[in-house]
Each structure stands twice: as C-alpha cells, then as structure tokens.
Amino acid sequence: MSKERSVLVSPDEKRPPGRSGRALLVWGLLVVAANLRPSLTAVGPLLDRVQADLGLTPAVAGLLSTLPLLAFAVISPLVPRLAARWGPERLLWGALMVLTLGIAIRWAPSAIGLFSGTVLIGAGIAVGNVLLPSLIKRDFPTRVGLLTSAYATVMGAVAAVASGVAVPMSQVVPGGWPTALGCWILPALAAVVLWLPQSRTARPAPRAIRGHRLPLGSALAWAVTAFMGLQSLGFYVVVTWLPQVFQDAGVSAAAAGWLLFVFQAVAVATSLAVPAALRWARDQRAVATVSSAVLLAGYLGLLAAPGWALLWSVVLGLGGGACLVLALAFLSLRAQDATVAGALSAMAQSIGYLLAAAGPVVFGLLHTITDGWQAPIIVMCAAAAGQVIVAMVAGRGTVPPADGRAPGRASSPAPDRAPSPGQ
Q1: Is the pTM of the predicted complex or chain greater than 0.85?
Q2: CATH number, domain 3-10+20-394
Q3: Exposure winner among 70, 276, 315, 411, fewest CB in 10 A?
Q4: What DSSP designation does 399 have?
Q5: How many angstroms separate the CA atoms of 331 and 353, rounded?
Q6: Would you call 141 helix, strand, or coil by DSSP?
C-alpha cells in the first residue's frame, strides 16, 4: 500500500525530525486517519430519518454515499501534482480544512447543506487517502508496516464506532440526526490543530511529477481495477443500506446501527490478520478468491435469511476486511516499479471508484422500483460472483509499463509475496 504512493514525496527532501517532532507527527497522522471514514459511515444508520425529514427517495438518498466516491475518483489522480505544487503537508492541512467545512455545512438540516457538505467531505477525504501512506513511507521508512497497520486500525475502529453511536446519539442530542452527523467536526478540528505545525514546517515542494500513461492496454491492470471497484462497491452499499435492510427484517434502528458496527469491527480485525497470511503465500489468487467467495456467501445468506442479521454482519465483515487489504496490496504487488505502481493506482482508484459510485444509487433505485430488497441483493450477489472471477486474475503477475519501456536498472519485477511489515 505504501509503495505506490512513494512517488508523491521525494526521498531526497527528507528531514529527520527530533523525538518530540516524530511523536507529534505520529499523533497527527493517527488523528488524520481517525477522520477519513466516520463522516461517511455515520450516515447509513440515520438514512431512514434523513429520508423522512427531507423527503428523499431511496435513490436520491443513495447519493450520500455516491458523491464521496465520485470525489475520490475525480480528485485522487490530481493529488500528486497538487502535492508537487504546494507540498504534501500543506495540501493535507488544506484538505482537513475542507473536510471540517463540509461537516459544518452538512450540519444544517436541509438537502442543499446535506449534499454540498458531503461533496466537500469527499474531497477532503480523497486527499487524505492518497497522502497518508506516502507520508508514512517518507518519514518512517523502517516502520511502514507498523504505522500503516496503526492508521488502518484507527481509521476502521473510529468508522465502526461512528456507525454504532449514530442512532443513540441522534435520540439524545439537541437537533437530532443533523447534530449526530455534525458532531464529527470535533475530531476534524483536532486534526486541523495537530497538523498545523507540520504545514508550517513543510519542506519545499518536490519537483513536478510528470504524468505517466495509465496501463489501459493491460488485462491484468483491468482485473486489479475491477477488484478495487467491486470491493469498494460492496463496502459502500453495505454501510449505506445494510441498516435499513435489517430494520425491514424486524431489527430496531439502534440495533441495526450496532450491527453495522459489528461488520466494520470484524473487517478491522480481518484486515490486521491478512498481511501476515499473505507473507506465506506464493501469490494472492487463492486468498483473494476465497475472500470474495465469503462476501458472496454473506449476500446469499442475507437474501435467504435476512433475520440472521448478526451472522451475516460477521460474514460480510470477514470477506470485506480481507478484500480491502488485498485491493490496496495489489496496487504495489502487481507493479514492476514505482512508476507503474503510481499509474496502476491512479487507474484503479479513479475508474474503480466510478464503478463503486453506482452501487448505493442503483441499490436504492432497485429497492424503490421493486418495493423490496431481494432484487438489489441479487445484484450484489452478481457483483460478488464477478469479484470471485476477477480475483483469479488479479492475484498474480505484473503490469508492464504503458509506454513500453523496460524497467530501470534499479527496478525489478514485484514479488508475488506481500512485503514484510518493515518494508
């Protein structure tokens, strides 16, 4: 996950911070990570109330998950050039300001504030998604595995808590659901404050990063892109609509929020276990295929017996957590050098998130048309089945450079084994 982002920051501009500076930097990175998901995952458990208060159809409500994904798709490929112009520290601080502004605007109980704030939130998170692994690679090159696991755990854990407390909080705080969504401005402001010293001591902007052609002619690159898009589609459909599916099966709104917490908590635990398993595998085809099949089993179970809500939350968390780690790992494991990794990452995240963006809207639209959840869940079963097929291709091999050049002397084909935590 870190390798493909290393091109964003030039290693020759590294400055070794002192002990207190390194501690402040670590805390800053972790607090930033804590803000990359809760503003998104808190929406799903509250979606029925949002729909009722604002008069939104399910398809329109699905845009609350789709808009951030569209922002990811549009902004992610631009981040390297923006970081080259302004410096990654200043760019990340600006992104945190945009995120904070978006949460504040979304606090207003209106459709305009809700959707415009969501766009800004997606834009801020998109920059953080790209820059965080790069900054860890630059400033802690011997602790990449440890800090990557730490920030991924913090990100997932806070996202899970946001899902669990959304409904109870909306019932007790003044203002209801707008306040339950708006309260996440507090950790966002904390991140702005903690990151401010880094933005003031930012290094000179690295030399301009020239764009490289996307590997659009590579079947393997398309398989990696499809895997990224399909697993993202599944995650954002689940965090948006799973609470309502459970509520219609007889689960209370508060319990449905906690079941979404279970899904994400299991996904966090699984994502921590997968890297260790990958180090012992010759390639990733088997683990990617099995993980995708677990997701398919979860959707099939949800279709056949939606009342077994806790079981399907656990099953979907097991498959979803593993597939997220695999999707990120493929971006470096399938590339023969850092340049190809950057191009593959841009292709997978831009096109993949465009695919994922359709998921919540289509899911809600099918629910509206059919007045039930069977048809949308069948579509998710088909998507998971497609992911099983794609996994067999995406789990092995290397993507060649799109310009036909041979890798440089210092470059070598990427190993099929996952990197060790210290790499």
Answers
A1: no
A2: 1.20.1250.20
A3: 276
A4: B
A5: 14
A6: coil
